[in-house]
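A quick aside before the break. I want you to see a complete sequence-to-structure record at least once, exactly as it would be stored in a machine-readable document. Don't worry about memorizing anything.
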Amino acid sequence: MTPLKARRFQMLDEISRHIEEHGQGPSIRELGPAVGLSSSSSVAFQLTQLEQRGLLTRRTRDWSSVRLTTAAVRLLGAQEVAPRGVRRGGRTAYPANRQ
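That is the input. The structure line, written in tokens, reads:
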């Protein structure tokens, strides 16, 4: 599995923390500010990407029912993150001027 972009790793970490504290996953509106995204559409897109990679599952259509898969838990333990500006598959993980 290719390393995660920093933002997606941060999202997994935040979801893990939120589940530990509240017993369920965060809503899109809760997760956005915690990871620096202001658009709920952007949050939903990133969550869908994580779900397609097999790192998240949902029991219902609602994102607050999200759970980390075993692969995600392993990844969080290994902290395998693509550094900003590192090229992956011909695309830049994060442009150098983006924070």
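Two observations worth writing down. The longest helix spans residues 6-22. The chain has one domain: 4-92. We'll return to this after the break.
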